């Protein structure tokens, strides 16, 4: 290169790096597009703010995406609070919901849901963090490579924060280094099935796989979530049933998945969870049973394990608390899920277990599909896709059906925010306290609405939701994620600025 070339070369490379910096900085949505509120520092006030110390009347100061202070009344240091104040009057200010169990089906099955529509629905429902399940996307999240595909798929599409569970499947369960690298890559914990999952690249695990998984998880202090239903030789399991009249009956489906399937799975799990006790070989790991439906023998087993010191928690879902088998019409496959929705007496017991603290938390288990796979015309319960679509409605559903049991705002915050935050290892989320992320839902408990065709639903396929046609109370007015007002009465922020959460 001649002298001139040597002089021009640094200049050109400087120019290129400036250009790259410019593209990187300014092609991302600017902050003003992330929020419907053009302030970095502001206050939100109401007469009902749900804090860990109880419900107070006052104001929450938000600064730089975090909660800077929480004050009773509208005075701080004896002076009336200054700056931009949004006064929500009698509406409830609560920590944003954390949904630890949702299937957003992205990448690969975005015609079922996808990160964009799924997190829009979440924001409209007051959910500020969602942990995505490792199955129903294509491929399933079972390795470092497939996790990378998830995170890439989520980029600039998520309106709320999204974390990821990894899958524990036979292939990685017996391969410590594969599990290690998946956990190092940032999944918040693992999830496995004790029965067929319905997804080809997500095979079921047995208790030896689960034991191995827990021992690896112990090092990382992260949980294993398990779909606890086990196929029993002596009892029925979705047998192919060519008699369409019988397959249309909800009772036919219910009989294929009796409570004893949940009980058998949990009994087997407890052989392994004993290692999670203090000084046990898997101390530090934790087992979480997802979507419990059986409120009798299965729940008793969990209670006993807790009393013995096992590190174990259990969730149930709004659909088990809202619906009962008696009300499900034959052929109405919107209600098909596993484990199945059981009788009204079981539902009553679930409510008691929840209010008495034996069920630790709630999750949506939002598991949508395309209407075609729900086989509405045929109404075949044995062949239709199993899964309830509910993401946007979990708060009003819990509130509407829970009011008669006298549930409190603090209980709602505990079931939907505090305990889920702990399960997912999110120390800066789940409660309205200074220093936490400003993840907040503002909602009006007394406002009622009809879930009819005039109601704006953000799910990709609203018609498959079992809640369509019901009347609910509890309307979400505003949702803040890390201080950004991402949803306000029917409108979303222009840009999707949620953060993908990876464990460190
Ligand atoms: N593949 C699924 O989404 N399964 C889900 N299906 C339900 N719950 O019916 C689940 O969580 O088990
Ligand atoms: Zn499941
Ligand atoms: Zn699920």
TrEMBL record:
- Please give the Gene Ontology molecular function terms for this protein: allantoinase activity; cobalt ion binding; zinc ion binding
Q: Cross-referenced Gene3D superfamilies, in alphabetical order?
A: Metal-dependent hydrolases (3.20.20.140)
Checking Pfam families in the record gives: ALN_composite, Amidohydro_1
Domain of life of the source: Eukaryota
The residue ranges of the Amidohydrolase-related domain are 92-486
Q: Among the entry's GO cellular component annotations, what is one?
A: cytoplasm
EC number(s) reported in the record: 3.5.2.5
Q: What are the BP-aspect GO terms?
A: allantoin catabolic process; purine nucleobase catabolic process
* Pathway(s): Nitrogen metabolism; (S)-allantoin degradation; allantoate from (S)-allantoin: step 1/1
Keyword Plastid appears in the UniProt entry? no
- Similarity comment: Belongs to the metallo-dependent hydrolases superfamily. Allantoinase family.
Q: How does it assemble?
A: Homotetramer.
**Name of the featured protein:** allantoinase
